[in-house]
Amino acid sequence: MILFLTVLSGIAWTVVYVDAVRIGFRDRCYAIPAAALALNFAWEAIYASHSVTTGLSVQGVINIVWALADVVILYTFFRFGRAELPFWVTRKLFLGWAVLLGVTAFTVQLLFVAEFGWEAAPRYSAFLQNLLMSGLFIAMFVARGGARGQSLLIAVAKWIGTLAPTIVFGWFGNSPLILGVGALCSIFDLVYIGLMLRARPGRAGAGAAHGGTL
């Protein structure tokens, strides 16, 4: 059961990343909120590198696939992200903000490792940043005035990809923290799915041109 849920989570999140790439190029924007994208890339780069040096597991292979997908999503962020911000944000300010996000993300992830060690750190940091991502997806929907640069497939796959490890580490792993944070993720994810269902695919291009999403 645990292996099944691990693979299910890996497939679901891979679907999120692949569709985020597709949507990003189609709508000429980034499909993952910037702060969450930075944290995800830092998490995957750090733990994929660690798994390569210590011996690959199923999760380690999945982390490598996710990290590679994130590189493409990062390209869409740098290529199209400037248009999401107010006019007074120059290209230099945009790049400076992006670098600050990246440095902060890697610093936070490494601090989790320093505090909790290589075994527990990826679990705690992953669920906390996942909760942040769930809220930021809703904020992105609101800021863009609709479903532009987003998809129902991303919303549903994100929910499943988070729910599966919530069961693994929260329920089977007997962790009240992970179970509680994972449950909160599901609440936010279901709200976001509801927003995407309400928007309908035919109205996906009706979002605002500038939103200032995080």
Give the topology, please.
Layout: H1 2-27, H2 34-54, H3 58-80, H4 91-143, H5 152-172, H6 176-199
Helix pairs in contact: 1-3, 1-5, 2-3, 2-4, 4-6, 5-6
Description:
There is one protein chain. With 214 residues, this protein is an all-alpha fold. The protein has one domain (2-203). The chain has 6 helices and no strands. It has helices at 2-27, 34-54, 58-80, 91-143, 152-172, 176-199. α1 (2-27) packs antiparallel against α5 (152-172). The longest helix is centred in the middle third of the chain and has 53 residues, at 91-143. The radius of gyration is 17 Å and the shape is globular. The protein starts with a helix and ends in a 15-residue tail after the last helix.
What is the percent of helical residues?
over 70%
What is the H-and-E element order? HHHHHH
Mean pLDDT: 90
Structural class: mainly alpha
| Main sheet specs | none
**How would the global form be characterised?**
globular
Helices, by number, come to 6
Number of strands: 0
Oligomer: single chain
In short:
About 80% of the residues lie in helices and about 0% in strands. By secondary structure, the chain is mainly α.
Give structural attributes.
214 residues, mainly alpha, disordered C terminus
